[in-house]
Design goal:
CATH topology of the largest domain: Tetracycline Repressor, domain 2
CATH class of the largest domain: Mainly Alpha
Oligomer: single chain
Radius of gyration: 19 Å
Number of domains: 2
CATH architecture of the largest domain: Orthogonal Bundle
Largest sheet: none
Structural class: mainly alpha
Number of helices: 9
Order of helices and strands: HHHHHHHHH
Distance between the termini: 47 Å
Strand content: under 5%
Low-confidence stretches: none
Mean pLDDT: 91
Number of strands: 0
């Protein structure tokens, strides 16, 4: 194994350990000592790959996103062009039986909490949610060509907001996963209401704009 391959493997081992630590024990348990113990590695080795916790958490954000992206892409290839929006929505509420979401949903609440004091992580997460929102805009436009761009952008923001809040309730607070169907059906009704609207009046000019 080359040095580069070994480095990639060790970093993945550390990031997986950090994810498991956050998932089961929460943000209050996050430390180099605990991550090293979870990974069965030395603290010095963890510090070799990550200079500080900000760097570790920012890379964990990308590591988790890649897992979602890989699973989602595999499912999109399977379902093809026709049912992409349906699959896309089913996937993010863990209703796509053949392509289940990764079991690390609680970790995202920890990441959001950590981002309050970390500009690096906050920018990383905003960028990822923005990309997810733009993918949703694209899929909505394909599935419902009658929707204008402003309506698609509004719906995409609502989808991402609902999806994140949903899993905060279900994964972090322990509500039943049966609520996934409730939220998923609510999204169908929401999209249908936008499609049926005779004349769309956007609620704001740029739904994905952030505070300056």
């Amino acid at each position: 194994m080359s040095n580069r391959d070994l480095s990639v493997e060790k970093k993945a081992q550390i990031l997986t350990a950090a994810s498991e630590l956050l998932r089961h024990k929460g943000l209050q348990a996050l430390s180099f000592e605990n991550v090293a113990r979870q990974a069965d590695l030395s603290r010095q080795l963890v510090r070799y790959y990550f200079a500080d916790l900000d760097a570790l958490i920012a890379e964990l954000c990308d590591f988790l996103a890649k897992g979602y992206r890989d699973t989602l892409i595999a499912g999109v290839v399977t379902v093809g062009q026709v049912a992409r929006l349906e699959f896309f929505l089913d996937f993010f509420f863990d209703l796509a039986e053949e392509h289940r979401m990764p079991t690390n949903l609680e970790v995202y609440d920890s990441l959001v909490a950590y981002s309050v004091g970390s500009t690096q992580l906050r920018e990383r997460m905003c960028s990822q949610y923005d990309v997810l929102g733009q993918v949703m805009v694209h899929e909505l436009a394909i599935a419902h060509p009658g929707l204008d761009k402003a309506a698609c952008e509004e719906l995409s923001f609502l989808f991402v907001s609902m999806m994140h809040s949903h899993w905060s309730f279900v994964a972090s607070l322990g509500y039943s996963r049966a609520h996934s169907r409730l939220t998923r059906k609510a999204l169908d009704r929401l999209i249908a209401s936008y499609v049926a609207e005779a004349e769309f009046h956007p609620a704001m000019e740029k739904p994905w704009a952030r505070q300056s």
